[in-house]
Design brief:
- The protein is globular.
- With 210 residues, it is mostly helical.
- Helix 1 runs parallel beside helix 5, helix 3 packs across helix 4 and helix 4 runs antiparallel to helix 5.
């Protein structure tokens, strides 16, 4: 199978979770409108580019050791990607609050933004590293969806409860970093990454209906 076909299949597989999420919101009679859904998906794509820019300003450490692995995986990658979600989430949550477009929390917007991020990330890794492409294809969406939910909840609840907001953000970074570690570590089986992504997603999804 050619690389172009693989890339197209990846894009289709990556778009599928977003379609399922939209159907699920409709079945739950959530007040997330279709225009806001599409804007949030676009914001997720933008957040991927924002994360890439942020990572250019976070220099890698030039020596070996466990501290370097922790820094690169948890700080340079995971934290920068979660911060990129905050950057795009803030204006969307303010917009949603202004027009009363969502109920309860910004977790719903965070979920869709996370899925938009995953869509582009899958295409990127499909081009640059085919060896982990299929594993990411089936785990990136629940992973970024779960982290997006938590960051959305963090942004939405910041003014009311800063401690809870900080917890949601730190937990998103930790989950993201643990997933990345499982992906790149030869000592950890790939099933571990799948478990982290799915467990985090199902532990977070109820926040979208608060």
């Amino acid at each position: 199978m050619s690389e172009i076909r693989v890339l197209l299949l990846l894009l289709l597989a990556s778009a599928f979770p977003a379609i399922i999420a939209l159907i699920w919101f409709k079945l739950k009679k959530h007040r997330l409108t279709l225009p806001l859904f599409l804007l949030s998906l676009t914001a997720g794509i933008i957040s991927f580019m924002v994360a890439a820019i942020l990572q250019e300003f976070i220099p890698p450490i030039r020596f070996n050791g466990l501290a370097v692995i922790f820094y690169d995986i948890f700080i340079r990658i995971a934290m920068s990607e979660e911060v990129s979600r905050i950057i795009v989430l803030v204006p969307f949550i303010l917009l949603a609050k202004k027009f009363d477009a969502i109920s309860g929390s910004g977790a719903a917007l965070g979920l869709i933004i996370g899925l938009g991020f995953a869509l582009v990330e899958n295409a990127y890794h499909g081009i640059s590293d085919i060896s982990i492409t299929w594993l990411r294809a089936f785990t990136a969406a629940p992973l970024h969806g779960a982290c997006g939910i938590r960051v959305g909840a963090a942004v939405f609840s910041f003014n009311e409860n800063k401690g809870k907001s900080l917890f949601w953000f730190i937990s998103a970074v930790f989950i993201h970093g643990a997933y990345n570690l499982a992906i790149v570590s030869p000592a950890l089986p790939s099933m571990f990454a799948i478990f982290i992504a799915l467990a985090a997603f199902f532990a977070s999804i109820s926040l979208t209906l608060d």
